[in-house]
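debug: dumping io for the single-chain case to check the tokenizer round-trip. Nothing else runs in this session.
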Amino acid sequence: MFQESVRHPVWRTHRENASKCYRYREGDQWTPAELRALAERGQPPTVRNEIKPYVDRLQGQFLATRQTTTFLGRNTPADDDTANVLADLDRFVDQDTSYEFLEPEITKDGTTGGIGWLRVDVGENELGQPRIEQAVENPFYMFPDPFFQKTDLSDCRYICHSKWIDIEGAIALAPDKEKQIVAAVGTRDFLIDANLGFDARLRNDPLMAFIDPDRERVRPVEFWYRRKMRRYQIFTPDGVTALTVPLGGEAYKEIQRAVPATAYVAKPVVVDQMWCGMFLGGILLFHRQSPRRHQQFPWVIFLADRKKNGEPFGPVLNAIPVQDAINKRESKAMNMLTNRRIVAEKNAIEDPEEAQIENAKADGFIEVANGALSGQRVLFPDNQDIGVAQSQMAQSAIAAMPHVMGMPSEMMGMTSEVRSGLGIAKKQQMGNLIQSPIVNNLRQFRFNRAKLKFQLIKEVFTGPMAFQVTDDPNAARVVELTASHIDAIKQRIYDVVVADATDYTTLREQELDMIF
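debug: decoded output
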């Protein structure tokens, strides 16, 4: 699975394009070959980074939405009280994990490289108690099933996660494999053993390197995948469901031994079961059924946009050609506006190198042979017209950037031909419409995240407790989770709603809305 994801052409292209998009957003916009060519001709490597402000503006738009998720019970008003407690639990988890600082990173990854990854799983607090954890993953550490299509990952067969860690960290993950891990580092062999079935050509692929002996680092691969398992649904003879959860083979055999065959009806069904594991080269560190009760991956993705072949991409990818035009034309214009050529016959200038130095000065002096100027044996062509033309074309490319990024000047706070405040607001609304597909994808990400958190809430919060929801730090709200709430959360169905509940700034604002 890992080899398939690493070597698949669509995701190889995605990693190359995404890497380029990150470099451009960060201001690294000239290749080494281009920099060498510019240095040889004395041309400045100018960079006018027009991409980063647009990405920051789009990220700010996401933050300004101030949307949150809430839960609604199927049976109103009986389920309303539990649904409100569940919504408060959802907010408590976000506050406990400082999620308000995580979503900006997710949106930045999505708008830059096309995809952002958030891990939502169960960990432990300082007292060893279970707690829900959320963390942003580096997109370049993630290797999913290249054939998945659905943003909720319901059709994704597997996901691999791999990053470099110190050898002590690997030993902590699998203490019983310490000797093998230490021996693997000592072999200085990236694939541990060439006879384990690995393709020899993978030795030239840096993503298939698992050992760094010089730094004593290792790169284990954590993998999660779905397995098809046969289960049995148990019904009474009249067709009523007797057990809501399909049974495994051993449990089904116990029923066969304990209950008469005429008392029930069994129907086989194939279900997905989540498994996980970790390997380091040829060493299997562990492999087991998922410790979670749900059958979902512990990741949620934010896809800004996607090509038909499945490759994720963001608005930065379309802006790169325009950014290149700006940089190269400004560089050319500056070079031509500050330098002039010299065209001369042989021996018409005694010292050509000195003539070039003097020609670059505003008060330079160039001595030529007698009669060279009058005979037009030496010419000083003017670059001004060409430089001005390049500058004008660069300005044209700058003007095209708002159209490519889908943000008019009014959304960026720039000078506009519109003067009235109402007119500017209308223009900004039109710009928001252009960005609505990405905003809708972000809403879907929030929806999928809430669904996964709901499954973990049922697993982690198993006893009565009181907790605080700090919407307003000066007036925290105390919420009590009772045993009846816990039973209702586990047994009833609740719908997730995104953006219909306001993310309140103060407690007074929320209480006033509740009164109304």
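debug: round-trip ok. Residues 189-198 have pLDDT under 50 and may be disordered.
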